[in-house]
Design a protein that fits this description.
This protein is 44% helix and 15% strand. The chain is α/β, with parallel strands linked by helices. It has a 6-stranded parallel sheet, with helices on both faces. A 6-stranded parallel sheet has the order 9-8-7-10-11-12, with helices on both faces.
Length: 357
């Protein structure tokens, strides 16, 4: 067994969503730092058989799971992994949704909490929340904000001018573009953005809304699709390869996140890193991300979103000022090198070679 070889277990890898992008970013960055990283996705039909074989062959010095509920399922089905040092990174819905349930779901989350040697959360609010739920978790908790790293655009779009790219999306220089990078699922509350901006559009017909992200919940998308198709100022680009996201976000003027709950709104932060001010729902995961009135605005209602949108539409200098502040914030607080350094240190603490294994 290599004492720097580890396994990451992710619930998702096929579609571009928070867990899969986090795992891909960490895998790439940590391999550059000398770790040998392999990934097992629970989307693979034979994941349980594969994991059991890996354990028997004793290939790994450490196992890193993502999402408490799904990692709890792994522990329930393959309890042998408890013999290895375990890290759990909580990613949002395991804290904001599953902990509020009863029965099997919440029990699996607690199984993961109990088995993990270290539990990584994205912000101090989640850290404090888990401490208040179970004080015995305090020694396990560590806060590591996600780093923001937008890959270069392999499509060639970045070498083209912004006017040409806008033309491709039927956007003009006069349009004020709201971008919403988000998987299509109910918890993202995309209707709030559409409803509010529809009213804004009545006064400012130059606005456009561009949605991009994978369809996570088909039923939700089905109900949303008709609405999108009826509104000529709304565009849905579907799932965009991550290496092309930068060129799309750079066409925007304002980024939106209207989720009911968040772990860390990575798509919004990526847009902010390009100098876009943010309008964020005032929910856990978003709260304390920005300072209201500095990098953007927090909203709770349709009315507040309308007011925030109109403020930014009417004040181009304010948009520019807030966008610059948003870029600085991401560079300072969500630096990918800081994230990788923190995980490297954590791995080094737990990567203990056991000669008896």
């Amino acid at each position: 067994m290599d004492n720097n070889k580890l396994l990451m277990i992710t619930p998702f890898s096929k579609s571009q969503r928070g867990n899969s992008l986090t795992v891909a970013r960490l895998r790439h960055g940590l391999q550059e730092r000398g770790f040998l990283v392999e990934v097992l996705s629970l989307e693979e039909s034979a994941w349980q058989k594969s994991l059991t074989a890996m354990i028997r062959e004793k290939q790994y010095a450490l196992i890193h799971g993502f999402h408490g509920y799904y990692f709890g399922q792994v522990l329930a089905k393959v309890p042998e992994i408890k013999q290895f040092p375990l890290i759990l990174t909580t990613t949002g819905t395991d804290l904001n949704y599953y902990l509020n349930l009863t029965g099997t779901e919440v029990n699996l989350v607690y199984l993961a909490f109990q088995a993990a040697d270290k539990i990584v959360v994205f912000n101090e609010e989640f850290n404090e929340m888990l401490r208040s739920i179970d004080s015995e978790l305090a020694a396990k908790l560590i806060t590591i904000p996600q780093g923001v790293c937008l890959p270069g655009d392999k499509s060639g779009n970045l070498s083209r001018n912004k006017s040409s790219q806008r033309w491709d999306l039927r956007l003009t220089e006069e349009n004020i573009v709201f971008v919403m990078p988000s998987g299509l699922r109910k918890i993202k509350n995309i209707e709030l953005a559409i409803n509010a901006l529809e009213r804004v559009h009545a006064d400012f017909p130059q606005i456009r809304l561009v949605l991009l992200g994978a369809v996570i919940e088909a039923d939700y998308y089905s109900s949303l699709r008709k609405r999108i198709n009826e509104l000529e100022w709304v565009s849905y680009l579907g799932e965009v390869p991550h290496e092309e996201v930068k060129s799309i976000l750079s066409l925007g003027d304002i980024v939106l996140n209207t989720s009911y709950s968040e772990g860390q709104p990575q798509g919004a932060l990526e847009a902010m890193s390009l100098g876009l001010p943010a309008i964020l729902s005032a929910v856990p995961g978003n709260l304390n991300l920005i300072e209201a009135g500095v990098e953007g605005f927090y909203i709770q209602t349709e009315k507040e979103l309308i007011e925030a949108a109109k403020t930014l539409i009417n004040n181009p200098d304010l948009r520019k000022q807030m966008g610059a502040a948003a870029r600085r914030l991401v560079e300072a607080r969500f630096n990918v090198n800081k994230e990788l350094a923190a995980y490297s240190e954590l791995y080094d603490q737990l990567l203990v070679y056991k000669s008896t294994q």
